[in-house]
Amino acid sequence: MTQRTERIDELLRQEIGQALEREVTDPGIGFVTVTKVETVPDLSRARVWVSVIGSDEQRKETLAALRRAMPFVRHGLGSKIRLRRIPELDVRLDDSIERGTRILKIIDELEAGRNPDEIGGPGESLPTPLPRFPHEGDSLDEMLASASAQAPSPKSRAKRTRSGEHRGGPHKAAHSGKAPAGKPADRRRPR
Fold it and tell me: Would the N or C end of the chain have less CB density within 10 A of its end CB?
């Protein structure tokens, strides 16, 4: 793949995504993200990889609606992109997110000591985020204490701001002629 083809692929990905977001009003199209576009070297065809959030039925309906909308999108690309030939657009489902979700579920089951073979196919298309994985021996009090210790308190934020550590950083103290504790002063002129 040449640099020119890569640039065209990225440009097509951005423009197709914007067209689907702003110009296509088909109610059958659900939550769609254009993840990648792959054009053939002669620019006659392009595979448009999309990720769709929803159930299997919603994904099928969205793919059918996208296939119906692609001639309209292709026609609109002609006025936005300066190419001799706008490629035929072939929509494909990108299931990498679903596979990632399934892997995360298997890892969760293994950590919980359950059999991961009981997990069926991917039911949801996005993983549910977890704050952190539980560790052996954690109690509820320890987990709450570690969560509150990670969040800075309002007093510590105010202290950092007054000392110049947060706002302006250590460079501000160096340019003012005062060096932070344990460091020599920087004698360069301020910019």
Answer: C
For the chain, domain boundaries: 3-94, 137-175
Q: Residue 69, class by beta-carbon neighbours within 10 Å (0-12 exposed, 13-18 middle, 19+ buried)?
A: buried
The pLDDT averaged over each successive group of 10 residues in the chain (191 residues) is: 86 93 86 91 91 87 93 91 89 85 85 73 50 62 60 49 46 48 56 57
Instruction: Give the global pTM.
Output: 0.55
Class of domain 3-94: alpha beta
Q: How many other C-beta atoms lie within 10 A of the C-beta of residue 118? A: 7
CB atoms within 10 A of CB 122: 17
